[in-house]
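This section describes the prediction task in plain terms. A model, or a person checking by hand, is given the sequence of a single protein chain and must write out its three-dimensional structure as a string of tokens. No templates, partner chains or ligands are provided. The sample shown here is typical of the held-out split.
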Amino acid sequence: MHDIIDIASEREALFREHAIAEARRRYRPMPITGRCYHCEEKAPGNFCCP
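The expected answer:
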């Protein structure tokens, strides 16, 4: 028989899995524009400094 802590733990795990799946579904990589997204200097990728 499940107690309240087991039920809460199962719900928390399901909520976390759903949130991760939703974030992966919405993920879109930033397009490479040739400029830094931070300072707008010319850059080979998205940012001029690591």
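For orientation: The mean pLDDT is 91.
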